[in-house]
C-alpha cells in the first residue's frame, strides 16, 4: 500500500498548468474568436482585440397603470455580444444609430443601437488609448456571422 502512495506522489508534486499570462481576459473567456474588419461610416478602424462572449443583460420595463401608479419589471437574460477594442484616435460621435453586417459589399443584416441593451455609450475624458465596445447580438442569427467579413457603424441620417 505504501508503494502505491509513492507511485502517486509525482502526480501531486507536478506543477499545475499555468494560465498563459500573455493571453488577455477576452481571449480566455471568449466563446469565439473573430476576425472581422470594423468601419465607421465605411472608414476602417485599427482593431486590437475582438471576440464573441456570453454576457448577462438586465432590462427594466415601466408600465403606467394609472395616473398615480406604475409597475416596474426587471428582466435578466444572457445574450451573445460582439466585443472589440480599437485605438483611441478614432472617436465615435454620439449620433450612431445602426450597426451593419456586410459580406463583401453586400449588406446582410443591420441592427439598431437605440434598442434596449444596445445603447451606445462612450466614457468621456478617459486617459487610456483604447476604446472598448460590446454589441448585444440579440436578434442577429449567429449563422449570419459566418458570412460576415465587415461590421460598419452608421451615423444618423
Characterise the protein shown here:
By secondary structure, this protein is mainly β. The protein has helices at residues 2-13, 25-29; strands at residues 32-33, 37-40, 43-44, 47-64, 70-87, 96-103, 106-112, 130-136, 150-155. The chain has a five-stranded mixed sheet with strand order 3-2-9-6-7, with no helix packed on it. The protein is globular, with a radius of gyration of 22 Å.
Defining traits:
157 residues; mainly beta; four-stranded antiparallel beta sheet; 46% strand
Q: How many domains is the backbone divided into?
A: 1
Secondary-structure element string: HHEEEEEEEEE
| Major sheet summary line | 5 strands, mixed
Count of DSSP-assigned helices: 2
Summarize the structure.
The chain is mostly beta strands and 157 residues long. The chain is 11% helix and 46% strand.
Write the layout of secondary structure elements.
Elements: H1 2-13, H2 25-29, E1 32-33, E2 37-40, E3 43-44, E4 47-64, E5 70-87, E6 96-103, E7 106-112, E8 130-136, E9 150-155
Parallel strand pairs: 2-9
Antiparallel strand pairs: 1-4, 2-3, 4-5, 5-8, 6-7, 6-9
Amino acid at each position: 500500500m505504501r508503494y502505491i502512495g509513492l507511485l502517486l506522489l509525482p502526480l501531486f508534486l507536478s506543477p499545475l498548468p499555468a494560465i498563459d499570462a500573455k493571453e488577455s481576459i477576452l481571449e480566455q473567456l471568449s466563446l469565439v474568436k473573430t476576425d472581422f474588419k470594423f468601419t465607421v461610416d465605411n472608414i476602417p478602424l485599427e482593431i486590437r482585440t475582438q471576440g464573441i462572449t456570453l454576457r448577462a443583460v438586465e432590462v427594466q420595463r415601466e408600465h403606467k397603470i394609472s395616473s398615480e401608479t406604475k409597475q416596474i419589471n426587471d428582466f435578466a437574460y444572457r445574450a451573445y455580444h460582439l466585443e472589440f477594442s480599437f485605438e483611441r484616435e478614432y472617436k465615435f460621435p454620439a449620433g450612431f444609430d445602426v450597426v451593419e453586417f456586410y459580406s463583401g459589399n453586400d449588406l446582410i443584416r443591420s441592427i439598431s443601437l437605440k434598442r434596449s441593451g444596445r445603447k451606445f455609450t462612450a466614457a468621456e475624458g478617459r486617459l487610456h488609448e483604447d476604446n472598448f465596445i460590446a454589441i448585444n447580438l440579440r436578434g442577429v442569427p449567429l449563422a449570419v456571422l459566418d458570412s460576415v467579413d465587415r461590421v460598419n457603424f452608421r451615423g444618423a441620417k
